[in-house]
# Entry
Amino acid sequence: MKTIRFPHPLVLLVGFILLACLLSYVLPTGVFSRHPDAATGRDVVVAGSYHRVPATPVSPLQAIVDIPKGMVDAASVIFLVFLAGGAFTVVDQTGALRSGVDWLLRRFQGREAVVIPIISVLFATMGALENMQEEIVPLIPVLLILMRRIGYPALTAAAVSIGSAAVGAAFSPLNPFQVGIAQKLAQLPLLSGGGFRLAFLVVALAIWIAGTVRYALRHRVQPETSAAADPAALAEGRNHGLVLLLLFAAFAFFAYGVLKLGWDFEQMAALFFGLGVVAGLIGGLGFTGTAEGFLAGFRDIAFSALLIGFARAIFVVLEQGQIVDTIVNALSAPLAGLPVTLSALGMMGVHTALHLPVPSVSGQAVLTMPLLVPLSDLIGLSRQVTVLAYQYGAGLCELITPTNGALMAIVAACGVRFDQWWKFVLPLYLLLLALGATAVMVGIAVGL
# Structure
């Protein structure tokens, strides 16, 4: 039997852009009224305000023009990926990364399988804390070196990073970009229901790690030996330990900046650029060698970075066609006539379906929660469970949707076809979705 084979990522995303263009001719156009919300600092929809507006179909030519517009919209993310990717290439060319990987493998010799749980927990923690996604793209070359030295397939690098981060974010008790915004819009205390969410997060992460370890062990190959450093690129006597110390200090400052200083992508990109420059000079590459390292990194990461812009263009087309609100209204309206439990599970389904045209979890919360919270009050469903349905439906969809630019970029950076990723991820996704549905039903039963 032939397996499903996805087209090239670029072909896939352009196909979705053209599909969005076609839908702008087929679907009725309509919008919700919106008002600024002081709690979230965003414009949120007004429940019951959906109304038809004159059609604004997006022509095929305009859809093509929307590709560079999508790149402009995602410019801060794209340049973060470029600068961080260049920086990590510089660090790699100093030889410090390979030296660090060799040291790590010596420490875990004979127990290499524990590397997956350790790295997965780290990325899941960052996903739970700050919805880490695009920031992972430049780290993939580092993870690929580690996985290849152990003998694990390249797909494992994506699984322990973007996969673990997405699971951590979806089940998080405190992710400000998912549960935080949703709880504000539902007028619930921040961090309320945290213990309940944390219990299911532990189970979800255990499922993901077990699946990843099983895949890695079943597909393990002969480990790559440590490659000798290029004598033309590496100066003698460099201090690998100092470069690695600088790298860890940069990561610590990165976490502090994101969590405490409210950094955006521009500040992150600046930090990584500074890391690359200082690491290159400390590592003995000199100014010219450091510059050449950045250029090599730019070349290697270019395709992955630009995929983020192509993915963003899909939403730009849907927004220009004024059909996003139409899709939201059509999916959410039937929920009012369902029993409480079925309505809650239906909300999970709605959020799953909506995440294809609305790939931003925070944007989806702003769009849907003002509609679903009054509905939940009307049918007697707790607002906390309504937030759970949003978290699990939208958050877990980050693992599978091709409109998630970060996912597409990371899978491409690993050299893995998207159909290969789907074959790995779908069984785990369905298990996690079932766990989320169980959490929703338990939440209803215990009166969360």
Residues 286-320 form the longest helix (35 residues). The CA atoms of residues 385 and 440 lie 6 Å apart. The two ends are 46 Å apart (CA to CA). Residues 228-237 have pLDDT under 50 and may be disordered.
